[in-house]
Design a protein that fits this description.
Length: 652
């Protein structure tokens, strides 16, 4: 243990290196094909005897549960929402990437692979990203067959648009509700299997513990959020598709229920947590309007196709946007990055917006905003054409702000949106706990230090429809011993959940759960947000353990465990955020470079771009939990680049 300012915090220990032994070598174009051929198969009769638990019903979890049941497995599907349709994937508005090259504008699987590796600032695995690019073309066919109403051109062909980090139009979309339509496709496939008896659905159930027997994941302990009943559910394998951890910042674009508990419980049971400091700040969000807010609203990145981002040229200019002539406007993204303009990747656009606001040129009541202006697009295309593309987004913005974006520019500002970090998995999507598979945003695998827009939907559906159903069989075919509910490990997991719930209810302090969460969020945004410094991270690492102790001494959780109790739900989730936050700051402190969404002020180029240190930090940081208060162990998985040469990213 070390200390700064007299407050102890946990150092870390460097452990043995980590390797992805499931990834094949050889030509990258054939690695996935060769891996699929090399896996062991489970015959159909045996599949019907095997049970798989899937936690989460978003694009990754819903597609995985439906596909696994279609293959013949017995699937139990869990979500804390009242319906699988309520998963947060519904909020991914803009589109889904695929290398179909319908536009004939030069796209290809290799170009999507290259753009994704570059967009992630050369901190992702080449094998995983190439597989994702390959599968992208199959995803579109799958979704069209399901009836997903993708936008179409006049002649009936599927339409595409551009997104950040690409110079081609590869993003398929369904107006401004792509996530919703894709989720409905996965949902109807899931409901078909529920009706057929292949999936047993557990809505309003929250996973509170992972059951590990003889070193293997064998089930979960879940609480019925309506009745309060807590019980164990056993299976031959467990799949986590529980999303990201952006709500550690309190204010984010995530739904209020999004949390890290499923992943964190698995981490405490032996699953390594990889790259937790890699969080994405989305540049296109409605600015904060006051302390009353509990979440932020995302405006789709697709808006940057036709909207132009600008601020006044002079600091302190408070004129209405319509009163500022063209010559006195700074279209700063177009000026700084002429090759990509308003479609630079999210991390770059976010930092550029922060910089102009820090210089006193921000707009709106707080000065923390920039304009996203559609006047040129409306003049060029006509209002009906703009409405056809973005109408529901414009309506949402007007309902929230009271301003009509057809008449005045939108105001936007960066906000926490997505987490590239997550549980470490190998090429088969299996974590360091055998039998525990992690898919979608809950794992770390495909995006590196920054996710390109429209790639989250691509990864979730690739994992759920195409990757996991092929790889999980390899694990199951090797044999899994039966386990019963009276096994000591099962009873211990149940007892741990009961004790934790009892402790939260018994403290009876004088501070609300939200007050702790809000303070933690401020700490994380100030010191581990868009820009990090060693000094700020040390301050956070001083305060977070103190705040965690205060939580367990002073939190007030009213009600009981034997009924619906949303305060109890939130308390458990915030308790896990308080542990995760320390690891995030420690990871950010140890990574003394800037890359993607992780921007250390001490490591930047002369023109204020991220400066990587490839000779020191070209690795995945996978953290092992060693006990509360004990030093976590850092395992490094070296990244090797054979097909893309790491270089200073340039979008100019």
């Amino acid at each position: 243990m070390s200390s700064r300012s007299g407050v102890p915090y946990t150092d870390f220990v460097v452990g043995s290196p980590l390797a992805d032994t499931a990834a094949p070598d050889g030509p990258i174009e054939t690695r996935w094909e060769r891996r699929r051929f090399g896996v062991k198969l489970v015959n159909p009769a045996n599949k019907r005897k095997m049970k798989i638990i899937v936690v989460g019903t978003g694009l990754a979890g819903g597609s995985a549960a439906a596909t696994l049941a279609e293959l013949g497995y017995q699937v139990s599907s869990f979500c804390y929402q009242d319906s699988p349709r309520r998963a947060h994937s519904i909020a991914a508005q803009g589109g889904i990437n695929a290398a179909k090259n319908y536009r004939g504008d030069g796209d290809s699987i290799h170009r999507l692979f290259y753009d994704t590796v570059k967009g992630g600032d050369f901190r992702s695995r080449e094998s995983n990203v190439h597989r994702l690019a390959e599968i992208s073309v199959q995803i579109i066919d799958q979704c069209v067959a399901q009836g997903v109403p993708f936008a179409r051109e006049y002649g009936g062909l599927l339409d595409t648009r551009s997104f950040g980090g690409a110079q081609v139009s590869r993003t398929f979309y369904a107006r401004g509700q792509t996530g919703q339509q894709l989720l409905l496709g996965a949902y109807q496939a899931l409901e078909r299997q529920i009706d057929a008896g292949g999936v047993t659905m557990y809505p309003r159930h929250e996973m509170l513990e992972l059951i590990v027997v003889d070193g293997r994941a064998r089930g979960i302990v879940a609480r019925d959020l309506v009745t309060g009943e807590t019980r164990s559910h056993l299976a031959d394998a467990v799949v986590l598709a529980s999303g990201g951890y952006g709500n550690v910042f309190y204010l984010s674009t995530n739904a209020k229920g999004c949390n890290v508990t499923a992943s964190w419980r698995a981490h405490r049971k032996g699953a390594y947590f990889a790259n937790p400091c890699y969080t994405q700040i989305h540049p296109t969000c409605i600015p904060v309007s006051g302390d009353h807010q509990s979440k932020l609203t995302l405006m789709s990145e697709s808006l940057r196709n036709d909207g132009r981002v600008w601020v006044p040229q002079k600091a302190g200019d408070t004129r209405a946007p319509g009163d500022i002539p063209e010559a006195e406007r700074d279209y700063f993204l177009e000026r700084q990055y002429p090759a990509f303009g308003n479609l630079v990747p999210r991390d770059i656009a976010s930092r550029a917006a922060k910089n102009v606001c820090d210089a006193g040129r921000g707009v709106g009541p707080t000065g923390l905003g920039v304009y996203l202006d559609f006047a040129d697009a409306i003049a060029r295309l006509g209002r009906p054409a703009v409405a056809a593309k973005y109408g529901n987004l414009f309506q949402m913005y007007q309902r929230i702000t009271g301003e009509d974006p057809y008449e005045v520019p939108m105001r936007i500002f960066p906000a926490v949106h997505y987490t590239m970090g997550g549980l470490w998995v190998d090429y088969d999507l299996q974590s360091t706990v055998p039998g525990l598979f992690v898919i979608g945003e809950a794992n770390f695998s495909d995006h590196g230090a920054n996710r390109l827009g429209a790639s989250a939907l691509m990864q979730g559906l690739a994992d759920g429809y195409f990757v996991l159903p092929n790889t999980i069989g390899d694990y199951l075919a090797r044999g899994v011993e039966p386990v019963t509910a009276d096994a000591p490990e099962v009873r211990e997991a149940e007892a741990a959940v009961a004790a934790r719930v009892e402790k939260l209810l018994s403290i009876d302090g004088d501070r609300t759960v939200d007050s702790f969460h809000r303070e933690l969020g401020h700490l994380m945004w100030d010191h581990c947000g868009m820009e990090r410094t060693a000094e700020g991270l040390h301050k956070a690492l001083d305060r977070i353990p103190e705040l965690r102790r205060e939580f367990w001494q002073s939190v007030k959780v009213p009600g009981s465990a034997a009924t619906l109790n949303q305060s109890l739900e939130k308390a458990g989730r915030v308790a896990d955020f308080l542990e995760l936050a320390e690891l995030m700051c420690l990871d950010a402190l140890h990574r003394e470079e800037s890359c993607g969404g992780h921007f250390r002020a001490e490591s930047q180029t002369e023109d204020h771009e991220a400066a990587r240190k490839d000779d020191e930090f070209s690795y995945v940081a996978a953290w092992e939990f060693t006990g509360q208060g004990s030093a976590p162990v850092l395992h490094k998985e070296d990244l090797h680049f054979e097909y893309v040469t790491p270089s200073q990213r340039s979008y100019k």
